[in-house]
Structures are given as C-alpha cells and as structure tokens.
Write a structure and sequence with these properties.
By secondary structure, the protein is of the alpha/beta class. The protein contains 10 helices and 18 strands. The chain folds into 2 domains: about 290 residues, Alpha-Beta Barrel (TIM Barrel), CATH 3.20.20.70; about 90 residues, Golgi alpha-mannosidase II (Immunoglobulin-like, Sandwich), CATH 2.60.40. Strand 11 and strand 12 form a beta hairpin. Bound molecules: alpha-D-galactopyranose.
C-alpha cells in the first residue's frame, strides 16, 4: 500500500471514530429550505402548499436528479404545545393537517423531510406572527420522538432563548443528539450556535453539520465574511461531519427586508458563482433558501452545475480550504483554495478585491508535484489542456469572481 493510500485510510478511520454514528451525511447534504422564500428571511411564512410545491419543483427542475435531497421547513411551522400532552403542534393556518402528511408527500417524491427547532424555550423568530414560537427546552426527548413519528429526516437546532444557568451548548446539543439517536430513526442533525463556541472542534460526535458563523444574508460583504470564517476549517470535516456556512441564495427571489429595503436577488451573477464555488470547495452543507419554483436560467446554470456538484459530493469525502494567496496586490485579495478529489485537485481562484486580477498559483501550493497536469474549467465546461510548467494563471478574474478548475494528473501528492 503506498503512503498516499495509507494516509487516506488513516483520515477515513479517524473520521469514522469521531463523527456522529447515525449513518447519514456521508457526503455534505444538499437541499432547499423555506427560510427566505415567502416573506423575509426573518419572518418566514411557510405553508404546506409552499413546501409541497417546492418538492414538486425539485423533481421537475432537475435539482433532485442533481443530488438535492432535503426539503426543510424552517422557523415558521410551530404554533404552541398541546395543553394535554405537551406535544409541539403546527400552525393550523399554515399546515392544516399537521407536518406528517407533508413529510409523507415529500417522501413519495423520493425526497427527505427536514424541520427546525430551537434548544431554548422559544425559537429565534416569530415567523411573522404575534406570539413566540416554543423551542424544545425541557422537551428534548418528546420532541425528538415527535419528529421521528412524523418521518423527519433532518433537524436543524438553533440556540436562541436559552436559560441562564443551563445554556452550555456542549451539554444541550449532546442531549438533543442523544434524544434523536434514541428514536432509532437516522436523522441528520444540523446544529446552529453560530460558531460562537468553535463547534468544529467538538461537534463532530454530536451533530452531522454545524453552523460556523453568522446568518448569511444576500449581500456581498456578508458573503465575503462567511467565506473568510470558513477559510481554515477543512481538517474538522469528514464523512458524517461537515461545516455549515449557512444558506445559499444564488439569485432566487425572496428575502424581502432582511436588510431594510432589500430584496433578493441582491448580488451579481459573478458573486453568486463565487458563493457556490466556495461552498463546494469547503464541502459545506448546501441548502438553497430562496425561491426555486420559478428558477431563472442563471439559477439553473449554477445550482445544476454537474461538474461542481461532483466535486461537492466527491467520494474521497474531504473538505477543502484556502491554501495560499497570489501576489497580485498589497493586500491578501487573490486567494487560492483547493480540495482533494478522487480524480485530482479542485482549485478555486477567488478574487475578493474591487478590481480584476490575474491569479497565478504554483502546482506545489495545491499539492501537485508532478507534471504534466490536465486542467479543466468547471464553469466553462472546457478542457484547457496539459501543462508542464510549475504554475498556472487564471487571467482577468473579475472583482468578487472565482474561477474553478479540476486538475488531474497520474498521481496526486496531497501535502498542503
Ligand atoms: C437563527 C439562525 C437562522 C434561522 C433563524 C430562524 O437566526 O441563525 O439560520 O434559522 O434563526 O429564526
């Protein structure tokens, strides 16, 4: 067995040992969430009709075939607790028959059903209503069982309104994780304490995916800051345990008033290609949170880019990250990101500057020490040729733009 194979085996064994052992999220999850589609992200007014028609559309528009599996109901569905048995109940005007039939509908389409809860006494938002929505605090076992009984496959657990004196995220996430496991149903667990307690360092045995930072809003400086937060987290991720850079917008409608007067789509096509490229390279969970029922040609071009999705779902199951900077300006704006994949190395050249730049990277920086190397452009879907030198230059990468390449060669040496 050669040394590359040995180190690959070691990485896989290490991850087998630490990741939550519930058999799900062996590759990073792909899906859609109600959060910013109908009404502002912060006042999501989801409904059974919306969720079911989104599931229909995921099948019709090719997203399901491309790998998007999860249809997730966000902080907008719960109403109160049943006074007799204290079960969470769904808002009757939005989900007249409750959540189970909606999950059944989703399952019939071959998709998976997700839901939101909070580990505190109330959720973060009121979902556009005049009363607070109950969280799961004090009811973890009961709510986990309710979700399992409804056929839930994915639970996002937020961290608002926790109680002083009992608000240790390590303890609370572990308790909820144990409650989910005790149901016997394999449920993907997505934790969301906004990266405050460095969840990448301790969450892998507890949750399948963990939010690494603040909410992602559909505005460039916010996206750039999310990317920065995730620039050095690859070593924490692996099968069953992935970083979550938060929802992705990619040109869909929605998001009214997330920032005053703001409506998605709020960024340029170049910027949306950048967010998709970087979420792919970092192997973040990718959950689309804007309207997909009337996808534009641009949304389809991005969200259904098979070559990028192949990198995202690559069976090597390794995350990528920033591996260096090119010397294109005084400040560190010309970024080189890389991710090892089965057939080589995926490379993103990301220009976070206000002006265009050429970005040159040496093959050694991305772990390649043998040439010639074949380079393919994953946005242009074009083979660029075989290169025998020591570096390659992406020319005139626009402000906030990203070029994505797949580098393949006879043997990859992975030592960045
Ligand atoms: C928090 C989370 C968001 C979203 C809302 C729901 O703000 O960070 O992703 O889930 O709560 O209210």
């Amino acid at each position: 067995m050669n040394s590359y194979f040995c180190s690959l085996l070691l990485v896989l064994l290490l991850h087998c040992a630490v990741a939550l052992d519930n058999g799900v999220a062996l590759t990073p999850p792909l899906g859609w969430d109600t959060w910013c589609t109908q009404g502002p992200c912060g006042r999501d007014w989801c409904s059974a009709e919306e969720v079911q028609s989104a599931a229909d559309e995921l099948v019709a528009n090719g997203m399901q075939a491309a790998g998007y599996q999860y249809v997730i109901i966000s902080d907008c569905w719960a109403d109160t607790r049943d006074p007799h048995n204290s079960s969470l109940t769904a808002d009757k005007t939005r989900f007249p028959n409750g959540i189970k039939p909606v999950c059944d509908y989703i399952h019939k389409k071959g998709l998976k059903c997700g839901i939101y809860t909070d580990l505190g006494t109330n959720t973060c938002s009121k979902g556009g209503r005049d009363h607070a929505i109950p969280g799961s605090y004090g009811h973890y076992k009961q709510d986990a069982q309710t979700f399992a009984d409804w056929g839930i496959d994915f639970v996002k657990a937020d961290f608002c309104n926790t109680i002083k004196g009992d608000n240790d995220p390590h303890k609370l996430y572990k308790e909820f994780s144990d409650a989910l496991n005790a149901t016997g149903r394999p449920i993907l667990f997505n934790s969301c304490e906004w990266g405050l307690d460095k969840p990448w360092e301790w969450m892998a045995p507890i949750a399948n995916t963990w939010r690494t930072g603040h909410d992602h809003a559909d505005e460039w400086s916010n996206t750039a800051s999310v990317i920065e937060i995730n620039a050095n987290l690859a070593s924490y991720a692996g099968p069953g345990a992935w970083n979550d850079a938060d929802f992705i917008m990619v040109g869909g409608e929605g998001c009214t008033d997330f920032a005053v007067g703001h409506r998605c789509p709020g960024q340029t096509d170049t910027e949306y290609r950048t967010s998709f490229s970087l979420w792919v390279i970092m192997a973040s969970q990718i959950i689309v949170a804007t309207e997909i029922r009337n996808m534009s040609a641009f949304q389809k071009e991005v969200l259904l880019n098979k070559e990028l999705l192949a990198v995202h779902q690559d069976r090597l199951r390794k995350a990528g990250q920033r591996v260096g900077f090119a010397n294109c300006s005084q400040s560190k704006v010309c970024q080189i990101w890389a991710r090892n994949v089965t057939s080589g190395v995926a490379v993103a050249l990301y220009n976070s500057d206000k002006v265009a730049h050429d970005i040159t990277f040496s093959f050694a920086t991305v772990g390649i020490h043998k040439t010639p190397v074949a380079i393919r452009d994953l946005w242009a879907h074009t083979d660029l040729g075989h290169f025998s030198g020591t570096s390659y230059t992406g020319k005139a990468i626009p402000s906030h733009g990203t070029n994505m390449y797949l580098l393949s060669m006879p043997e990859t040496v992975t030592n960045y």
